[in-house]
């Protein structure tokens, strides 16, 4: 009975019982979840692009990079336009914007990086 339901859920064989139909319905519901099935490569690339573009739309953002299959985004800010307080608020605002505007599986970590570098040469 279980083997038959497994075979019937992809319509390899004709469903013949309640368990077969129930397994088909459960499979359909499971497949409808965001990220439950493999997304196309184009859709994956578009999702990363949209994530980076959303981050770049904020003031003081110099560059944004989606990492770890879009589960993390690193946002580089212009240090002269964003002090520590602004950078912290920017991380919060970007995270809320991602929640409100994008569709994504799981969680996305937002890292805002404010860096100043000074270099001198010794001769």
Task: Provide structural commentary.
With 123 residues, the protein is an alpha+beta fold. It folds into two domains: 2-31, no CATH class; 41-114, K homology (KH) domain (GMP Synthetase, Chain A, domain 3, 2-Layer Sandwich), CATH 3.30.300.20. It contains four helices and three strands.
Secondary structure: elements and pairs:
Blueprint: H1 2-8, H2 18-31, H3 41-56, E1 61-67, E2 72-77, H4 84-101, E3 109-114
Parallel strand pairs: 2-3
Antiparallel strand pairs: 1-2
Q: Looking at this structure, what is the CATH superfamily of the largest domain? A: K homology (KH) domain
Cα separation of the termini: 82 Å
Strand order of the largest sheet: 1-2-3
Question: Helix count, per DSSP?
Answer: 4
Average predicted local confidence, pLDDT: 87
The tally of domains stands at 2
**Strand and helix order:** HHHEEHE
Computed Rg: 23 Å
Strand content: 15-25%
Unreliable stretches covering 5 or more consecutive residues: none
Strand tally is: 3
Instruction: Kindly provide the name of the CATH class of the largest domain.
Output: Alpha Beta
The secondary structure category is alpha+beta
Task: Summarize the amount of helix as a percent range.
Answer: 40-55%
Describe the largest sheet.
3 strands, mixed
């Amino acid at each position: 009975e279980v083997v038959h339901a497994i075979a019937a859920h992809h319509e390899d064989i004709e469903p013949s019982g309640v368990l077969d139909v129930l397994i088909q319905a459960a499979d359909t519901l499971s497949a409808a979840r965001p990220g439950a099935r493999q997304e196309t490569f184009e859709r994956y690339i578009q999702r990363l692009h949209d994530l980076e573009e959303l981050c770049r739309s904020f003031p003081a953002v110099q560059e944004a990079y989606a990492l770890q299959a879009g589960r993390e985004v690193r946002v580089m800010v212009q240090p002269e336009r964003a002090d520590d307080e602004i950078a912290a608020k920017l991380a919060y605002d970007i995270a809320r914007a991602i929640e409100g505007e994008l569709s994504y599986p799981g969680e996305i970590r937002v890292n805002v990086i404010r860096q100043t570098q000074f270099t001198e040469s010794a001769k």
